[in-house]
Amino acid sequence: MGLFLGVRLVGTLVLALVGHAGGRHPLTLLGRSWDSVWYLGIAVHGYGRLLHLRATVVSDLAFFPLYPALVRAVTALTPLGGIGAGLLVSWTAAAVAAAGIYAVGARLHGRAVGTVLVLLWGLLPHSVVLSMAYTEPVLTAFAAWSLYAVLTGNWVWAGTLAACAGLARPNGFAVAAAVVAAAGATAWRRRGRVSHRLWTGAALAPLGWTAYVLWVGLRSGDPLGGYFEVQRRWGSRFDLGEGSLDMVRRSLLHATKFAFPVTLVIVAVAVVLYALVLLERVPLPLSVYSGVLLLVVIGGSGFFESKPRFLLPAFPLLLPLARALVRTARARPWHATVVVAALAGLGYVYGAYLVVFGRAPL
Hints:
This is Integral membrane protein. By secondary structure, the chain is mainly α. The protein has helices at 2-21, 26-31, 35-45, 66-77, 82-109, 111-122, 136-151, 155-166, 173-189, 196-204, 207-220, 226-233, 242-253, 259-279, 284-299, 307-311, 319-331, 333-356, and strands at residues 50-53, 56-59.
């Protein structure tokens, strides 16, 4: 935990220094950048805001309710305002997520791998989001501990935490998919001779995501399709990768923003890492969870440059790298030190660039 907090504090300091040099206030950058404005607005005023965007009208119903609800609770219980409450929720969730990621890594491969797994997660190119008023830390916190509960056989906890993850972000259903897949595999392996707690956990897992999608549908007059229409107006839909391929073509053939080719590289690396996850036979719930997140990123259209952020909760993809780095550290400590220093430099500089100077939505 100390290692994770240290690397994120340094990253936040770098962002603050770059922001100051660019004439931007650090708290504004951290608490009111892009989607943060929408979430804090929901926390203060509730749902109902509309905005004209790209010749259509978009709604704040596209943003899931758990994070705004937590921010509202903090503002009610403390003297903090919206930005302070939003950052407190995000920073706390990031710390809880780091502890959960360590628990998963340590259970599978020992304490060293768990520690390095947290370090790598905290140094990803888009890890700056972990210091901002965004929802990825909240999703990752519930996801990590839900997956840990599956690995330890605590099915009711796994389902409950998965339901909470489903209320945090649209791609939070990946946690429910992992819990249901693991429960089904366990029941099949034991020929149905399982505790009722397994079925209870599997039934609880998708409730959060399903409840919000149906609520938005009922509010918009189309119970099954209303939420997806809201997302379509934002430009987000699942089109089997057609939109992503078009963005790749445009990035390769025409001059684009710097974030676009970097996004392409990050997604490509994620695909390679997932292949390694499958080859190393990572436990089913972790491979299903990261696979669903990767499928949403590849097969979904929308804000192409935001895809690395959508992959931030997919920490199981880092397991092969964590194991390799631990082996390197034991054989050649200085080589591992250089690798970590390079990752830190890349993550800090690129994260500051995205928030301060990048014009593409984070």
